[in-house]
Amino acid sequence: MLDFEKYDFEKLIDIAKKQEAIFYNFLNLIDDSILLVNKNFVVEFLNEKAKELFDIKNEGDIPLKHFFNDFELEQKKEAISKAINLKKVLDVDNLTIIKGREIWVKNLFIPVDDLESDDIKILLFIKDITFRKYVEDQNIKVNERFAKIFQNNPAVVLISRVEDGKIIEINSSVEKVFGYTQSEILGQSTKILYADPRERALFIDKILTKGPITNYELKFKRKDGS
Questions:
Q1: Which class would CATH give 151-226?
Q2: 157: which residues sit within 8 A by CB, 6+ positions away?
Q3: Residue limits of CATH 3.30.450.20 in the chain
Q4: DSSP 3-state assignment of 125?
Q5: Which residues pair with 167 in a beta bridge?
Q6: Which of 33, 158, 188, 203 has the most CB atoms in a 10 Å sphere around its CB?
Q7: Which residues contact 30 (CB under 8 A, 6 or more apart)?
Q8: Going by DSSP bridges, is the β-strand pair 42-46/33-37 parallel, antiparallel, or unpaired?
Q9: End-to-end alpha-carbon separation of the chain, Å?
Q10: What is the pLDDT of residue 63?
Q11: How buried is 67 (Cβ within 10 angstroms: 0-12 exposed, 13-18 middle, 19+ buried)?
Q12: What distance in Å separates the CA atoms of residue 70 and residue 68, rounded to the nearest whole number?
């Protein structure tokens, strides 16, 4: 099966212009739900995946209201009208309930020329992205926990680039111990913190060759030189 997020939509629309039957057969190969909606908000075609998702047996000519609740229906109508007027692909994520199950979906509203008239219709691609949203949410929570641990750690903690020592992030203890404000030290090289800047190269070399190091003594200096 094909993933619509990886497909070339210009090629897809070109297929639509050439032969309707081939176009519809192709849509049935895509492993995501697809509705072909006209300007009157009537679904003229739905692929096999959409029939399965919405539990609909009919082939087409179904009012859009049969697919979505009132609130989501208005959102879909607004996006369809906007995509038609702008002749531009719209990308919208939303939370929905289908078959009693709450899921996140990605909606792509793709304007295509009608084969028999001057009307523009919308190919509405609907992809279940619930798992992706779950992963994103977990990543946010992990990052928030990391930020709290990082900032509240009484020990000096900073993040810098290996190649040039550029300081990317610091916690509040760095300011207290070294005397630099965050704005003064971010973007600087860690060399300004070493009593002997040459020690940084030796220290980094040991980390790269031996991995994490503990109990390694280094001499640093504060902003005032002490």
A1: alpha beta
A2: 150, 170, 171, 173, 174
A3: 4-131, 151-226
A4: strand
A5: 160
A6: 33
A7: 1, 2, 3, 4, 7, 47, 49, 125
A8: antiparallel
A9: 66
A10: 94
A11: buried
A12: 7
Mapped onto helix, strand or coil, the DSSP state of residue 220 is strand
Instruction: Tell me how crowded residue 173 is: count the other CB atoms within 10 A of its CB.
Output: 16
Q: Rounded distance, CA 45 to CA 25, Å?
A: 11
The low-confidence residues of the chain, meaning pLDDT below 70, are 1-21, 115-116
Contact between residue 105 and residue 124 where contact means Cβ atoms under 8 Å apart: no
Query: Given this model, what pLDDT does residue 46 score?
Result: 92
- Both tokens of residue 36? 């072909």
Confidence (pTM)? 0.58
Q: Are 122 and 111 in contact (CB under 8 A)?
A: yes
Tell me which of 3.30.450.20, 3.30.470.20, 3.30.70.3280, 3.30.70.1320 is the CATH number of domain 4-131.
Answer: 3.30.450.20
Q: How many CA atoms lie within 13 A of 185 on its CB side?
A: 27
The angle subtended at Cα 193 by Cα 189 and Cα 194, nearest 5°, is: 105
pLDDT for the residue 2: 47
